[in-house]
Write a structure and sequence with these properties.
The complex is a heterotrimer of chains A (about 500), B (about 200) and C (about 650).
Chain A: H1 7-13, H2 15-33, H3 38-60, E1 68-70, E2 75-77, H4 79-106, H5 112-128, H6 133-151, H7 159-189, H8 194-202, H9 208-224, H10 233-240, H11 243-251, H12 253-266, H13 273-294, H14 301-322, H15 324-351, E3 352-354, E4 357-358, H16 368-371, H17 373-386, H18 393-407, H19 411-437, E5 448-449, H20 453-468, H21 473-484
Antiparallel strand pairs in A: 1-2, 3-4, 3-5
Helix pairs in contact in A: 2-3, 2-5, 3-4, 3-5, 4-5, 4-11, 4-12, 4-15, 5-6, 5-12, 6-7, 7-9, 7-10, 9-13, 10-11, 10-14, 11-15, 12-15, 13-14, 13-19, 14-15, 14-18, 14-19, 15-17, 15-18, 15-20, 15-21, 17-19, 17-20, 18-19
Chain B: H1 2-23, H2 27-48, H3 51-75, H4 80-88, H5 91-110, H6 118-122, H7 128-131, H8 134-142, H9 147-168, H10 180-185, H11 188-191
Helix pairs in contact in B: 1-2, 2-3
Chain C: H1 3-20, H2 22-55, E1 59-69, E2 72-80, H3 82-105, H4 112-130, H5 135-153, H6 160-191, H7 196-202, E3 210-213, E4 216-219, H8 220-235, H9 244-247, H10 253-262, H11 267-274, H12 276-279, H13 283-306, H14 310-330, H15 334-361, H16 379-393, H17 399-413, H18 417-445, H19 453-458, H20 464-488, H21 493-497, H22 509-513, H23 518-541, H24 544-552, H25 554-561, H26 566-616, H27 621-643
Antiparallel strand pairs in C: 1-2, 3-4
The chains are: A mainly alpha (about 500), B mainly alpha (about 200), C mainly alpha (about 650).
Chain lengths: ~500, ~200, ~650
């Protein structure tokens, strides 16, 4: 029976996606015919549009007390998806500001960059609103494909295409795993819709085929969030891609993927919790340990941040392991805080240019406290926050996650989390040491500070959040508790 | 009986040709074996009653993808033998890992049990008229129930297209191109200048 | 925005502006911003005072939610009741006076903007402390004033002594804060909430709860009260944890006036008064408070007699007066203690700022032995110091007379051994107070000039910006006692305090104090007059007496002059062993065991692990795929062999 689909109602439900898709198409055509300054105009328009999307999502908030399913069950809109979309749009906005100024400096800017970022964001929107394995997969592919291209955007460098290529090949393998897993699940249940899967899977006893399918799906998703051992691409891609694109990689897609995993595991696979908890437990532990230890010997700031992001994903996964509304809320809080901290850190890195490109080496930070005290202090605060030192935002992020884990009885995992964050603190603090206590090498190239007010404004805004979070941490935590309720 | 025979024939040739794809010394042979594999897979689809997928496979993969491969392989001078020599040292490990993986997957397959609700979920009732025609049935749901996925796939392809252009298109300097609108819109004053020349002085 | 929010956050705003943009707006700008913010806050505080005290508009204003976890709910809230309103008024008025005064006093300093910023920060923290509605915010304010005090004592950070004094103040306070933190936690354990209202409502129900502490059964409320009192002892420099206060005089004089006389040191008194519902059910704790307060009053006064540094004399006087407040608390005369707190804030700030004016005039000389004979040159300061001293000595109709007499009468009216002990301590201290106050006045202003000619020719009256705040405070020292007597401790005290203080009917010593014998009321005045007379005899008429006394009572004088050797004792008992222990742990424990075996060993091991891990990161795609496949294999094997097949 072919369902009669009320397309207009569905379009209204999926307003953020429809608007984004339409805007991306229009922007593509518009920019292609714009002869001069296409990159600047496209970037500016995209920024304006992203602000608009945040407003749209905010405006839709009131109408989705109850989740609304659209497009014949392929799509779902609820509190959770709308909030995360706002977060994603915000992250994309910050990244776009970075990308614009970075590419302007390195002169690789083309209008396709903002278009691709918007399209990638569209994919992420679908990921967080997925209510069917197919939507999930296509959204994921849309998001990833745009990222592959962005990674190799700088054709003049030999590293960027290599990074893009590696990312693409490994990503394709991961997608294969994901699809393989999905086929197991489909073979078991005979359906791909989350609603039907939830019904079918809730009452089933242990089934090895189904569990294997779930495991394969988790492998594919773990690749996207760079959880160990599916993280191998991360350092190379982070290092090879243009610095601002790396910022985008680090800030935004992980939120979408983590939230997708949360919806998937708590919704359709909620009945298989006993099995997936153990898989996610292992991923979380391995990520925390590797992220902490492998970061110790890095000399490149981008690689360091790659390992930092791997470790941070481990903490976020700990929240998923903890489960329940508390665990879910802790993940949302953690990812929000992580996004802001990382955005700020990249803001500092991108503000410091050496020969036109953003600084690459940790050694470039030597003597920064004298050459640019503001950036040195800002970086110090972000590093303290990333290592989880109170009263900065990062501390609260870790606190809620650890608390959720301990409350659910995963004390060993929480202890490992604390220990690894101690190890990781070493490399964060080392940057501070480099900035404040290491003398500048003679003959070292001058570090220039970018003159753009918008970029510094972003930096200051993130800094304000990281520092000011301690005044009202309860607001975000309570809000997160409200919005994850729509997952259960 | 006949169906089984055909099935096993196709399947056997498919696996065999896949094996040849990676073992053939000549890269052109590899690609040809690949095409053979595609055809056999298409045959399997036909056996399943999915004739649309069979045709798509033949047209897209054989007609476009594989032929593209063939061009690339023939145009680029890549020494596959050298590549393979490097890769050969990993074969034992690869075989071991692959073997274990295969065994485990077989074990999973052997104890496969589908959900009791499978039959009821999988039945996706389609009009009797469309049932006879696989292509029509697909078309009916593709543009209705799966409209969203269809459009999203379009976006994926668009991204791929943008990517191909971004990564390869280069604005070459020093190339003279014809610009019709420029030619048409040109004014006499832009190109011709009348100068009064007094004799004997030159310009 | 409500009025109380404005009062509390104006100083914070001023601090931020002066601290962050001090360089941009300059010293003058910073002074303007902080002073005007504080004056506005002080005016608003007066409005609030009328609103709350006269109209009884007590309220709790929530600014923002802070932490919420189970029963542990804390907000940024402003608890506006009579008790906090009195504190707010005192703090903002004295603070605004000190702010204005600092403009003149610090005019030669290099970092005036920073100084003003710190003063405002302190004021904010203090306001946070007194307006707290839960234990956590109380602790926040408590530590906030500690930090601001540290910054201000060590403000002249190029002076070694100032840095040492700042660290000493911080560490000694830490001992008290440790007790306070334990006390707060005890409250949380006992009452399962950190909101004041719910705690106070539950006190009666918990009055017999026993508490397992270090294996002993102890009375829960007494334990909580004693631990809280430990915090108060540290912050209010009571006997035992008092050593930091005299040293804190290394800070600029306005700091001494604001923090170490009028506001921060009274936080302990406020704390006990705030927890009066709890202390009322912990009689043993009250007795401890009472005895310690009485001892401190006498102890500090004996030291004050012998010191020569003008600021130290006033510092010991402060400590002694705090002793009065505490034994008043100890006999449940909370209103009397708060009354004395308020009057003391005025006259002690006046004395300090007056002393600052003298120091300013004497070219930064603080030793009274090098002063003398200057009363004609700085008459205004001289008169104001007289007013302050008369108030301090409790001479009739000055502010101190009303509050101090009330405390002594309440102690007498308590009719217990502890009350009587405190009463007689108070009488002795009253005599000593009058004596050292006039000793200070005479040594500073009278007699022959003992400074050299260069300094003497320089002596000048302070500028108006310093004198005006003094006059404002002098008004307080003159009239605050008379004016507020009926409200704080008189007939209408019940309406005045409302619900903010809770006193058991049988403990109402303030009420009983109105019916003590006449001699009790008159005795303090006579001993005070006696003290003044003695000072005149010893230091003006017969200056040879002190030297002879010193010679005759050499051991006792030595004891007093060296502050009962408490500092030396602490040095021997705590500091040195701690250093020895510390260096042992540092060299042996840290160097040998932890560094070699632990930290260095661990970090070396971590480094090795990191190198091994980074060896996987070859850059080859097929290696990466291999790792991924191994991951898949591990997962699959785990599922198949651990979870099992169907």
């Amino acid at each position: 029976m072919i369902q009669s689909v009320d397309v207009f109602q569905d379009i209204k439900t999926a307003m953020p996606e429809v608007a984004t898709a339409a805007f991306a198409l229009w922007l593509l055509v518009f920019s292609a015919f714009k002869k001069h300054q296409a990159f600047a105009v496209a970037s500016f328009l995209s920024c304006a549009f992203l602000v608009g999307i945040i407003v749209v999502c905010f405006g839709m908030f009131g109408q989705y007390d109850e989740p609304v399913v659209a497009f014949g069950g392929l799509y779902i809109q609820d509190y959770f998806s709308l909030s995360i979309k706002m977060l994603i749009a915000l992250g994309t906005l910050i990244s776009l500001i970075y990308v614009y100024f970075d590419m302007k400096q390195t002169q690789i800017g083309r209008f396709e960059a903002p278009v691709l970022m918007i399209l990638s964001m569209l994919g992420m929107f679908f990921m967080v609103s997925a209510h069917d394995l197919l939507t999930l997969y296509v959204g994921l592919e849309l998001q990833s494909l745009a990222l592959y291209i962005l990674a190799s955007f700088n054709r003049h460098s030999y590293k960027a295409p290599e990074a893009g290529m590696k990312y693409f090949i490994l990503g394709a393998i991961a997608s294969g795993m994901l699809l393989f897993g999905m086929s197991f699940v489909y073979g078991f249940a005979g359906h791909t819709g989350f609603g039907v899967l939830e019904e079918v899977l809730n009452g089933t006893t242990y089934n090895v085929g189904l569990t294997v399918g779930l495991a394969f799906m988790l492998v594919g998703l773990a690749f996207k969030i760079s959880a160990v051992p599916f993280h191998m691409w991360t350092p190379d891609v982070y290092q090879g891609a243009p610095a601002s694109v790396t910022a985008f990689f680090a800030i935004v897609p992980k939120i979408a993927a983590i939230c997708l995993i949360m919806r998937l595991l708590n919704g359709p696979f909620g009945g298989l919790q006993d099995q997936w908890v153990q898989i996610v437990y292992a991923l979380s532990m391995a990520s925390m340990v590797l992220g902490a230890f492998a970061g110790l010997v890095q000399t490149s700031i981008k690689r360091l941040l790659a390992y930092s992001s791997i470790g941070n994903i481990g903490y976020a996964l700990m929240g998923i392991v903890a489960g329940g509304a508390d665990g879910g809320a802790s993940v949302v809080v953690y990812m929000t805080v992580y996004m802001i901290m990382t955005a700020g850190t990249f803001g500092v890195v991108l503000s410091l240019r050496k020969g036109g490109v953003a600084v690459e080496e940790i050694a470039d930070f030597k003597g920064l406290s004298k050459t640019s005290p503001f950036h040195a202090y800002a970086m110090t605060l972000f590093m303290f926050s990333l290592s989880g030192i109170p009263p900065l935002a990062g501390f609260f992020g870790k606190l809620v996650v650890f608390k959720a884990a301990v409350d659910s009885g995963y004390i060993v995992l929480a202890v490992i989390g604390v220990l690894t964050s101690v190890v990781a603190a070493y490399y964060y603090l080392r940057i501070i040491k480099t900035m404040f206590f290491d003398e500048e090498d003679a003959g070292m190239d001058e570090i220039q500070i970018v003159p753009y007010a918008a970029q510094h404004g972003t930096l200051v805004a993130t800094l304000a959040v990281v520092v000011g979070f301690c005044v009202v941490p309860a607001v975000l935590i309570e809000y997160a508790e409200v919005l994850v309720r729509s997952l259960f | 009986m006949l169906a089984s025979l055909v099935f096993y024939t196709f399947g056997f040739i498919l696996i065999l040709s896949s094996l040849f794809v990676i073992t053939a010394r000549n890269p052109v042979h590899s690609v040809l074996f690949l095409i053979l594999g595609f055809f056999n897979a298409a045959g399997l689809f036909v056996l399943l009653g999915a004739e649309f997928l069979a045709f798509i496979l033949a047209i897209v993969y054989v007609g476009a993808v594989a032929v593209l491969f063939l061009f690339v392989v023939m145009m680029l001078d890549i020494s596959f033998a050298d590549l393979r020599k490097d890769a050969m040292q990993y074969v034992p490990v690869g075989l071991l890992v692959g073997g274990v993986l295969l065994i485990e997957l077989t074990m999973v397959f052997m104890s496969w049990q589908a959900s009791p609700e499978l039959a009821q979920n999988i039945a996706h009732p389609i009009d009797a008229a469309a049932q006879a025609n696989n292509t029509k049935a697909l078309g009916l749901i593709l543009y209705t129930d799966y409209l969203l996925i269809f459009q999203m796939s379009g976006m994926v392809l668009l991204v791929a297209m943008i990517g191909a252009i971004v990564l390869t298109l280069r604005g070459r300097s020093g190339v003279r191109r014809q610009d019709v609108s420029k030619q048409v819109s040109i004014k006499r004053a832009d190109v011709v200048e009348v100068q009064k020349v007094t004799s004997g002085t030159g310009i | 925005m409500s009025i109380e929010t404005a009062i509390v956050f104006l100083p914070l705003l001023a601090f931020m502006i002066a601290f962050l943009f001090g360089k941009t707006i300059g010293d003058r700008g910073a002074q303007l911003v902080t002073c005007s913010a504080l004056i506005v806050a002080a005016v608003l505080a007066c409005v609030l005072f009328v609103d709350v005290i006269r109209d009884g508009n007590t309220r709790v204003t929530e600014v923002a939610q802070w932490v919420s976890s189970g029963s542990f709910v804390a907000g940024w809230t402003l608890r506006i009741d009579q008790l906090s309103t009195v504190m707010i008024a005192v703090i903002t008025i004295v603070s605004s006076c000190v702010h204005v005064y600092s403009v003149g006093y610090m005019s030669h300093d290099k970092a005036q903007a920073r100084f003003m910023a710190y003063l405002s920060l302190f004021t904010f923290a203090m306001l946070m402390l007194v307006t707290a509605d839960n234990l956590l915010q109380l602790f926040f304010g408590w530590e906030g004033v500690g930090v601001a005090s540290y910054l201000l004592i060590g403000f002249w950070n190029y002076k070694d002594t100032a840095n040492k004094a700042a660290i000493k103040a911080f560490i000694v306070n830490r001992v008290g804060d440790f007790g306070l933190a334990l006390g707060l936690m005890t409250c949380y354990v006992l009452f399962d909430t950190i909101q004041f209202d719910s705690i106070f409502d539950q006190v009666f129900g918990q009055k017999d709860t026993m508490f397992d502490f270090l294996g002993y059964q102890v009375h829960g409320l007494t334990l909580a009260a004693l631990l809280l009192f430990m915090g108060a002892v540290g912050k209010s420099a009571q006997l035992g944890l008092h050593t930091w206060l005299p040293d804190a005089m290394e800070g600029p004089t306005p700091v001494s006036a604001l923090i170490h006389a009028a506001t921060m040191v009274t936080a302990g008194v406020f704390l006990v008064a705030r927890f009066s519902p709890l202390f009322e059910f912990a009689p043993f704790a009250l007795q401890v408070v009472c005895v310690l307060g009485g001892l401190t009053a006498v102890f500090a006064a004996t030291i004050g007699m012998t010191q020569f540094d003008i600021k130290r004399v006033i510092a010991y006087s402060t400590m002694s007066q705090l002793g009065y407040m505490f034994f008043a608390l100890g006999v449940s005369a909370y209103g009397a203690a708060m009354f004395h707190l308020m009057t003391h804030a005025f006259f002690k700030a006046l004395l300090f700022l007056g002393a600052g004016s003298v120091i300013h005039a004497m070219s930064d000389e603080q030793d009274m032995r090098n002063m003398g004979g200057i009363y004609k040159k700085i008459p205004v300061t001289y008169v104001l110091m007289w007013i302050g001293s008369l108030a301090l000595a409790g001479m009739p109709f000055f502010a101190g007379y009303y509050s101090k007499d009330m405390i002594l009468e309440a102690a007498y009216a308590d009719h217990t051994n502890f009350g009587m002990f405190a009463f007689w301590c108070g009488i002795i201290a009253a005599f000593l107070t009058a004596f050292y106050s006039w000793r200070l006045l005479i040594m500073t202003f009278h007699g022959k000039p003992r400074a050299d000619d260069k300094v003497m020719s320089h002596v000048h009256e302070s500028p108006a910006v310093m004198v005006v705040p003094l006059v404002v405070l002098a008004f307080g020292a003159l009239f605050a006692g008379f004016f507020f007597y009926p409200g704080f401790v008189g007939e209408i005290r019940a309406e005045f305090w409302g619900e903010s203080l809770r006193i058991l009917p049988e403990n109402d010593t303030v009420g009983a104090a109105h019916h003590v014998p006449q001699w009790v009321k008159l005795l303090p005045i006579f001993v005070g007059l006696g003290g003044i007379f003695m000072a005149y005899v010893c230091y003006l008429w017969k200056p040879s007496i002190p030297a002879r006394c010193v010679a005759a009572f050499a051991p006792i004088h030595k004891l007093f002059f060296n502050k009962w050797f408490v500092d030396e004792a602490y040095d021997k008992i705590f500091v040195r062993p701690a250093f020895v222990l510390g260096s042992f742990f540092f060299k042996k424990g840290d160097g040998v065991i932890i560094n070699a075996g632990g930290v260095d060993g661990l970090s070396n091991a971590s480094d090795t692990v990191a190198k091994v891990l980074s060896r996987f990161q070859t850059g080859y795609v097929f290696h990466y795929v291999f790792v991924m496949v191994m991951g898949v294999l591990a997962l699959l094997s785990w599922i198949v062999f651990r979870l099992g097949l169907n």
